[in-house]
TrEMBL record:
<feature type="compositionally biased region" description="Basic and acidic residues">
    <location>
        <begin position="49"/>
        <end position="61"/>
    </location>
</feature>
<dbReference type="GO" id="GO:0003677">
    <property type="term" value="F:DNA binding"/>
</dbReference>
<dbReference type="InterPro" id="IPR009057">
    <property type="entry name" value="Homeodomain-like_sf"/>
</dbReference>
<feature type="region of interest" description="Disordered">
    <location>
        <begin position="39"/>
        <end position="67"/>
    </location>
</feature>
<dbReference type="InterPro" id="IPR007889">
    <property type="entry name" value="HTH_Psq"/>
</dbReference>
<dbReference type="GO" id="GO:0005634">
    <property type="term" value="C:nucleus"/>
</dbReference>
<dbReference type="Pfam" id="PF05225">
    <property type="entry name" value="HTH_psq"/>
</dbReference>
<feature type="domain" description="HTH psq-type">
    <location>
        <begin position="23"/>
        <end position="56"/>
    </location>
</feature>
<protein>
    <recommendedName>
        <fullName>HTH psq-type domain-containing protein</fullName>
    </recommendedName>
</protein>
Amino acid sequence: MASTSKAVARLETAAQVSKELMLEAAILATKDGLSQHAAAKQFGVPRSTMRDRMVNPEPKAKGAPTKLPEWAEKELVDLLVSCADTGVPLNRFHSLQEISEMAAELGKPKLNSGFMHWGLFILSSP
C-alpha cells in the first residue's frame, strides 16, 4: 500500500485528494528524471505549485494569523460546548461577548462583530 503525505490525510473532498495525489505523483516523476515542465503537463498541475511544494513539502496555511491563540480558541469552544450540553441558552451575541472579552484579556485588537467572523470561528472549531 502506498504511503500518502500528511497533506492528503487532512483533505476532505475527493477533488482535493485527487489534486494532492496528482501533485505528489508529478513531484515523484521529477525525482525519477522527468523535467518539471513535462511532469506538470503530464499530471495537470501548475509548475509553480509543484516547484513550491518541492522546496517546502509541508506548507502552512496562507492568510492572516488568527487573532486568538489556539489554546484560547479551544478554551472558548469548550465553554460554548459545555453551555450547549447543559442547556444554557446562548446566542451569537453572548458568544461574541465571551470572545471579545478573551481578546481584551490577551491584549488583542477589538474583534469585528460581523457575522462573517462569527461564521469563520464556528467553522474552524470542532
